Amino acid sequence: MKAIKPSLIAAGVLTALSVLAAPAFAQVSLRVDANQPGAVINKDVYGQFAEHLGTGIYEGMWVGPESKIPNVRGWRKDVVGALKDLHVPLVRWPGGCFADEYHWRDGIGPRSKRPVKVNTNWGGVPENNAVGTHEFFDLVEQLGADAYVNGNLGTGTPQEMAEWVEYMTSEGKSSLAELRAKNGHPAPFKVAYFAVGNEAWGCGGNMKPEYYASLYNHYTTFLKAPPNVRPKMIASGGNDNDTAWTEVLSRDAARGLDAISFHYYTLPTGNWDKKGAAIGFPETEWFSTMVRTLRMDEHIRKNVAILDKNDPQKKIGFYVDEWGTWYDVEPGTNPGFLFQRNTLRDAVVAALNFNIFHAHADRVRMTNIAQMVNVLQAMIITEKDKMLLTPTYYAYQMYVPFQDATSLPITLANNTVYGENGQGVPGISASAARGKDGKVYVALVNTNPREATDVTLDVAGQAIGAVRGQVLTAAAMDAHNTFEQPQAIKPAPFSAQAAGGKLTVKVPAKAVMVFSVEG
Ligand code: AHR
């Protein structure tokens, strides 16, 4: 695996290159135009997903008020505290596939009286409904986040869904508002987003887009929240290469539709039966993970082109409400719990996705990584009373300045290529924005696990004296934190000074960098 540096690279995956002799090359240069503000990067792009799956909620976050593990009304203090540092803007709940078998009335009232069900999607384990509507809203309140509730279309009815929305949002005198008050919350809950079903093409009912579009129209007719607190309504869309859902929904379900959701996971091999290992993987799987991650851009472009045709006024958002890495489960764990290790590779994947989402900020106004704790590409891993922060956690932390920042156009010239066997990906991925504090922030990712790259920086509209920020990298591609070595990988401070009016940043191999530009 070598790097080449041809000059004609814009973005995306390059194919049919006659790799791999490295010619003499020009310096990679990044120009940020601070005079041309683009779309605001909605903070909800940094949303999270918490499903009733494995130890994602139970154990990982919820231990119950009686637990010896320090908690606030059942929610772990350590985990909530760490998540608060990420400024988590939004949490999606209760699924995922779980959502389409979830009946909200099972999760209200005294916990001791709630029914125990079987979580048929995820490991066949008992679900005691200890976390229900009130507990979820307590969590988001503790986090200072907004709520994204996913309704049950698959096994529910329009009446059940309408009554859940009424239970959560009703301000007036209604028996459901009174029941909510009796259960401890007289004031309505704020539901920022509400989705009608999940993955209707699969676990949500194996439907065709036309059939789902009719159901979406049918159900949303009866979802009557007070106008000032009406959640943004989301239709469950397609995944991967399938654009039919966006086509049909933006055409047939556009009334009362705020957004179409989309799911895309990065599997190193692309094979669901043998996805690839989370740790101890070969460089070929580092490379294929980069290739497959960058396909997010292509998927968004194709769907946005359809939206631009059917919704030129850009009323409909395109929400990637499930994304992230999906590996073979950790050996010896319940396969239904989707537990996997999280390494430097995951942080690079997260940062590449962030840069792609920023580039589509006008349509991609919300996303949710899957998932928040102990499941798939998690921020946090827990074991009994211990917890550790993953490289993905640190990527989120480093990108906090991009929340609600204004995107700025960039030009990346003379980019490197990282590749093998006639295929390559751009060596450097970049993004820039003006933060809410007025500073220009730049993010750089080096996809090459072997070679550092020098990037010269130029900001039109601003003199550069220095840059200051953080860098996340490590010696091994699969560097990760463990309970024995919880700080094996974490960001380090970074700064560089301009010289002769120019500033060059050395981006280490396999690294994520975020810094502010100082005058
Ligand atoms: O995130 C895990 C699962 O992946 C979700 O429940 C489902 O929507 C998707 O297939």
Describe this entry's structure for a reader.
There is one protein chain. With 519 residues, this protein is α/β, with parallel strands linked by helices. The chain has 2 domains: 19-39 and 407-518, Sandwich (Immunoglobulin-like); 43-404, TIM Barrel (Alpha-Beta Barrel), CATH 3.20.20. It has 9 helices and 28 strands. The strands form 7 sheets. It has an 8-stranded parallel barrel with strand order 4-7-10-11-12-13-14-15, surrounded by 6 helices. Helix 6 links the parallel strand 12 (232-235) and strand 13. Helix 5 runs parallel beside helix 6 (244-252) and helix 7 runs parallel beside helix 8. Residues 1-24 have low confidence and may be disordered. This is non-reducing end alpha-L-arabinofuranosidase. Belongs to the glycosyl hydrolase 51 family. Residues 1-21 form the signal peptide. Keywords: Carbohydrate metabolism, Glycosidase, Hydrolase, Signal.
